[in-house]
Amino acid sequence: MKQKINLRLAMIALIAIITTTIGITFVYYNLFQRQVEKDLRQNAELLMETEVFQNAYTSGKEGAKSLEHLSAGNLRITWVDADGTVLFDNDMAIAGLSNHLDRPEIKMAIEKGEGESIRRSDTMNMNTFYYALLLDNGTVLRVSTQARTIFSVLVTALPVIAAIIVLVLLGCILIGYLLTRQLMKPIEEMAEHLDDGNSVHSYKELEPFADKIRSQHENILAAAKSRQDFTANVSHELKTPITAISGYAELIENHLVDEDAEVHVAGQIRHNADRLLSLVTDIIQLSELDHSELPRKYEQTDLLSVAKECVNEYLPVAAKKSIEITCNGTSATVSADRGLIREMIDNLLQNAIRYNKENGSVQVYVTSENGHPLISVKDTGIGIPADQLNRVFERFYRVDKSRSRDTGGTGLGLAIVKHIVEIHSAEISIDSEVDKGTNITVKF
């Protein structure tokens, strides 16, 4: 970054020097050109006021000789007759000069009283400035001078310009180095103390950026810890049924189980296999929900219709525990992935039945509040202590660990529910009281 800043400062300085030099050259050359034209006009008018050319014209050849004192110098003087014949030139012999009637400044002077033009000599890199003035006797007095072209002026100035560029670039590099070091120092200090939320930043504009980076950093650490905990929990949860299955299988393999106990051992193997299958299924489900880029099939879904389907499926399971399960309410349509909504209600019903009491009840209610569809699942189960309410959506977290394992719970049901709720941008709330029951509401 420092190198980029230094390089860009140098580039800006270089562009500024070149454009300024060219711009100033054009401005001053334009002023110089106007001054040359003004001087030529003044010289021509002074010569006209002396009336030497008017007197020479009336004197004939003798008069032309009287003009020889006008020697050649920076100012060239040419006297032209009305028909274009050159009567006098202080720089060249008139015998070798052609008719000047076709010269632009001469033609303009004859027509308008005065005329001027500029002709460029590419071989000499010079501009010749002409000014012609019509005299009272019909002849034309022309004065001219040469000046260097703007290109030659720039070429001549190149060594000076190059020296200035080198000096300015060196100055820019030095200033850029000091400036970038001064600019970067607070940023480097901020990076070193990024974890310190109380640190004072030199640049107030960087505070939102620092807060955002700090927040992302904390989220990354939290996510890493969550993954680490999840991996440890998965290993522990999978190890338990696998160890049980392996142990019971070893008993059978070594003929250590009598015929009366075979049914019990087989039942334990099946029970642990079912638990293992549930764990793997829930872990796969969570993994899929974690990938937000997976396609979702959103459609208009009636929550009441889906809830009734789920309740009907769990009627036999609830009946085994003498639990009454009902579904009531009004139709409430939401744009959602029907499969995920069904999965969400299934998990809520499983928990409500699993942690319920014998002869208890589960009530599913669907309605709309202020245009927001919602579904609630209320049970009369063991309830959740107030200090644990904020943890029940954590993966593998169980309020009653022993009961959860006995009933086949994986500790992932509510974590799956929370993921599905977040995917649909909904809100989930939980209200519970120990030994009285729990009510979980999802509002879309």
Question: Overview of this structure, please?
Answer:
This protein is α+β, with helices and mostly antiparallel strands and 444 residues long. The protein has three domains: 152 residues, 2-Layer Sandwich (Beta-Lactamase); 68 residues, Helix Hairpins (Orthogonal Bundle); 146 residues, 2-Layer Sandwich (Heat Shock Protein 90), CATH 3.30.565.10. It contains eleven helices and twelve strands. The strands form three sheets. Strands 2-1-5-4-3 form a five-stranded antiparallel β-sheet. Strands 7-9-10-12-11 form a five-stranded mixed β-sheet, with helices on one face. The model has no long low-confidence stretch (mean pLDDT 81).
**Helix tally?**
11
Overall shape: it is rod-shaped
Low-confidence stretches: none
The class by helix and strand makeup works out as alpha+beta
| Largest sheet data | 5 strands, antiparallel
Order of helices and strands: HHHEEHEEEHHHEHEEHEEHHEE
CATH H-level superfamily title of the largest domain: PAS domain
Radius of gyration: 50 Å
Topology:
Layout: H1 2-50, H2 52-59, H3 61-65, E1 76-80, E2 86-89, H4 104-112, E3 114-121, E4 126-134, E5 140-148, H5 150-192, H6 207-253, H7 259-290, E6 298-302, H8 303-320, E7 324-329, E8 333-337, H9 338-354, E9 361-369, E10 372-379, H10 401-406, H11 413-423, E11 427-433, E12 437-443
Parallel strand pairs: 7-9
Antiparallel strand pairs: 1-2, 1-5, 3-4, 4-5, 6-8, 9-10, 10-12, 11-12
